[in-house]
């Protein structure tokens, strides 16, 4: 019996990776399933999901909804904002600062793609 080199194993694994389809009928990417690591993190997924079903949420509304601290929400919201997934608008109402967030078109597309990948992964596990 001849042992395969690690390069041959990687090539075989890459070639034999299943091509997954989502429940919505959209074909997944041609490369093996790749989840969006930015959205995959629990707090950022919750933040993007909350904004997907609410047109606009204030910082305090998000903080209460996600049951998180100011610092934690700020860090995760900034990462999503830097990626263009979330838009932040700061204003003042009676001298009180108000920060509002909304999901951008790019963020909605990324969430849809992420959900399609998760559905494809779940379907492939059910079919196995």
Structure description:
This protein is α+β, with helices and mostly antiparallel strands and 128 residues long. 55% of the residues lie in helices and 14% in strands. The model is unreliable at 16-31 (pLDDT under 50).
- Number of continuous helical runs: 6
Spatial extent as radius of gyration: 20 Å
Percent in helix: 55-70%
Q: Let me know the average pLDDT.
A: 83
The CATH superfamily is known as Winged helix-like DNA-binding domain superfamily/Winged helix DNA-binding domain
End-to-end separation: 29 Å
Q: How would the global form be characterised?
A: elongated
CATH topology: Arc Repressor Mutant, subunit A
What structural class do the secondary elements suggest?
Answer: alpha+beta
The CATH architecture classification is: Orthogonal Bundle
Overall domain count: 1
Largest sheet descriptor: 3 strands, antiparallel
Show unreliable segments. 16-31
Strand residue percentage: 5-15%
Instruction: Name the helix and strand elements from N-terminus to C-terminus, one letter apiece.
Output: HHHEHHEEH
For the secondary structure, the number of strands is: 3
Can you list the strand order of the major beta sheet? 1-3-2
CATH top level class name = Mainly Alpha
